[in-house]
Amino acid sequence: MTLSAPSARAVDLRVEPVDIVLAHVEQSLQVELDRKTVVRKRRSVGARTDRRTWVRIERRDLDKIGVQGWNGSECAARLKGIAQPMWRGCVVWQDAGEPVMWRADETELLPGPPIGNAILSEDPKLQDAWWQAFNATLDALAAQDTRRIATPDTITITQALVAEAVRSVAPTQDLDTTVECWVPAHADLNWANMTAPTFSLFDWEDWGNAPRGLDAASLWGSSLAVPALADRVRYERRHDLASRDGKLMTLFMCSKILGPDAHPQDPRLEPARRMAEKVVAELQAG
């Protein structure tokens, strides 16, 4: 009989007690975390330190840590031409009681507050200078070289995953889903991971090579509840999204919005359906 490895329990760090974890990070990094600044997310916790830096702590199942590891923020520190907080150091440890690992990365403070939640419901009214800096960073990122593979939502992106996603939104169509161009991508590009009025892009845990247009399509999907903002994203990243790979990534994003876990009241559903139909027609037309 083959014994399977124990699986980690589902944990939401927004409600899970984390005092022991915070104390471990303080001791390991020799910092004091300002408890009044703690920000909790589903799988990460962050806080400001007494040396004017920021520490982000993430919990990840062992089976979600692939061959390339999970040192995205550390590896992103070598990227050139990217507006991001400087990486200072980290501590990584395996949980004593569960098949999970913890990682705490220390970086410089952000130059401004995050723009909002991952999905926006109001226009942030960003200035042209912000969009210029945004485009400069995404263009510089795509020109880098890496062996890392992007892991959007902690799942390694592959040709098979793209094909499955496209088929889920176009099940009756015989579309060629072959990706032609793979370039470095942030892979978690949304409005919670960028700052304004000064642009900065952070949370680099999942970056790596991905089909061209993944980041643009991801941000477009995060903007659909604000039509003018979604249109602006498509305009600014039109050279990505108009490409064949960009159209595949648009369908990839639509599959996430329209998937079986979609909330019936999600304002993004109808625009995502319309865009999926439009893009499928364009791909069929060649």
TL;DR?
Helix content is 34%, strand content 14%. The chain is built from nine helices and seven strands, in the order H-E-E-E-H-E-E-H-H-E-E-H-H-H-H-H.
What does this structure look like?
The chain is α+β, with helices and mostly antiparallel strands. It has 2 domains: 90 residues, Phosphorylase Kinase, domain 1, CATH 3.30.200; 158 residues, Aminoglycoside 3'-phosphotransferase, Chain: A, domain 2 (Alpha-Beta Complex). The chain contains 9 helices and 7 strands; from the N terminus they run αβββαββααββααααα. It has a 5-stranded antiparallel beta sheet. A two-stranded antiparallel ribbon has the order 6-7. α4 packs across α8, α5 runs antiparallel to α6 and α5 packs across α8. The longest helix is centred in the last third of the chain and has 17 residues. The radius of gyration is 19 Å and the shape is globular.
- The helicity comes to 25-40%
Number of domains: 2
Strand order in the largest sheet: 1-2-3-5-4
Helical region count?
Answer: 9
Mean of residue pLDDT values: 93
At CATH level 2, the architecture of the largest domain is Alpha-Beta Complex
CATH class of the largest domain: Alpha Beta
CATH topology of the largest domain: Aminoglycoside 3'-phosphotransferase, Chain: A, domain 2
